[in-house]
Amino acid sequence: MELNTLTYIAIMLVAALLAGKVVKVLKLPNVTGYLVIGLLLGPHCLKVFSEDLLNSMSIITEFALGCIAFSIGAEFKISFLRKVGKAPIVIGVLEGLGAVMVVDTILLLLGYDVTFALAMGAIASATAAASTLMIVKQYKAKGPVTRTLLPVVALDDAVALLAFGLSMAAANVISSHGSAPIGKLLMDPFIEIIGGLAFGAILGLVMVYAVKFYTGRGNRLAITIMMICLCVGVSDLLGFSSLLACMMQSLVFVNLSRYREKIYEPLDRITPPIYMMFFIISGASLDVTIITSVGVVGVVYVIGRVIGKWVGSWLGARISKAPKIVSKWLGFTLVPQEGVAIGLATSAASSLPEYGSKIRTIVLCGVVVYELIGPIITKTALKKAGEIQG
After folding, report:
1. pTM summary value
2. Do 262 and 211 contact (CB within 8 A), yes or no?
């Protein structure tokens, strides 16, 4: 008997809930459990989910990516940026760009295609805020490294989105191989990035006035979902970067509206099951049959990203004159990687279909590795810095 879509959604959520309990016992992040159970149920293992089913679930992936970008934009409150000072901003930018440059450079030196290298470098920039914050809260870490770490992580994914937008625009131009007029090649990146930011800003202003007009909780939640869907849908139609557009929409809204808490709190309550399905789908898309063929580039990605993060954070700390202990240990706390990286890998796979399976496999394998060792490295670094007692 062929199951329908709603039944498959139920299976995904049951699997995610069970996986969450298992990884909790193992003291691993939930996202690791979701990815692994998705892999097991996917078309390359137990075949519970077919490739056709995964393709039909693209609306969940697109909405989840919009929500992720929207949440990132909320971290760009002007009051917050003024409060933390220049050090976290300088470090956040340089550690993100450091990962991009190191991964790009190594892959290019090894002879990989430029478009593939640009995509992998951009994805390397993202850091897992959830895993990092979990360690800080669990062990009650306090000190200069922790104080710098929290705003850096908050800003990190915004840097990743901007780097990704620029890198993918360049990759799309290069991959055209002269098949399009030069004017179009020059305009497409401009339209994708600037158009996305401008469109997102306009929707942010519209949202500010919309939540003033509708005051009920249900109405405001409906407005939020509607605006994210509108932002993603129209951006895709017009060739804008939907990720940058959603981030800018949220950035404008969070800085201009006094009702921001009434918007983000309800959204945070409904997105967990969306993210669960997103990670299940991502794990199910992992093609284990090509893991051996991406061994070298996988190692380069995992190690190169860590090196880039550490060098970038060290350089940023020196430039901003942060305490020496920050320049020494902060880079090691930026190893974890999860949701945003998976989202960027999904987006990159759509833009560069010839490398789609390879990009997803490398990033998902990297996420599993990072989520297994990342929290341990973060804890060790904070302990060495004297900010975790015992």
Report:
1. 0.74
2. yes
